[in-house]
Amino acid sequence: MKTTLLHIKNMVCPRCIDAVRTVLEQAGYRPTEVTLGQAQLDRTTPADPTAVAPILQEAGFDVLTGRAEQLTEQIKTSLTEYLEHLRTARMPLTTSAFLTERFAATYSHLSKVFSRTANLTIEKYLIRLKIERVKEMLSYGEMTLSEIADQMRYSSGQHLSNQFRQVTGRSVSEFRRDLMPKRLSLDKVG
């Protein structure tokens, strides 16, 4: 099956976009647009996803062929964007409202597909994403726990601290004392 749109897993940042574009160009394809989770190829160079998959896998990316896998990856990408929305919006949308607006689908449908494909709920995935972002902020040492809690829209520093321990098995203080704290790249969350 030839296609001009590839759905790609493990793209989480602008460097991933550059890397995918470079890999495709070096393989002789002409991407017209590369965004988080997708690469649009020039119509004159359509690709068989199974032929492109090994090339992208060498660079740490996976080609998604199933519709449920594609939607799940798009939801993950949107949840990463939702974290920025939480941080910057004066009155942020709820997770369900954000995703419903983004995908023009019911939250119930999105949640069922995500849970079935990712083997965890959207809520649990979002909590893990938030905790990884909190780890990043903690490692910089520029903000207090209360400031981080405010920015990540936790009700209090204690709520954040409790959730941090629940997800990581360690307290925030233990994490801060660690000279080389372990963090996950966002594409490994889940």
TrEMBL record:
Report which residue ranges the record marks as coiled coil: none
Bilayer-spanning residue ranges: none
Question: Which key words tag this protein in UniProt?
Answer: DNA-binding, Transcription, Transcription regulation
Is Transcription regulation one of the keywords?
yes
A Pfam family the protein falls into: HTH_18
What residues does the HTH araC/xylS-type domain cover? 77-178
Q: Which domain of life is it from?
A: Bacteria
Q: Does the keyword Transcription regulation apply?
A: yes
Q: Spell out the Gene3D superfamilies in the cross-references.
A: 3.30.70.100, Homeodomain-like
Protein name stated in the entry: AraC family transcriptional regulator
Q: Which organism is it from?
A: Hymenobacter defluvii
State the taxonomy lineage. Bacteria, Pseudomonadati, Bacteroidota, Cytophagia, Cytophagales
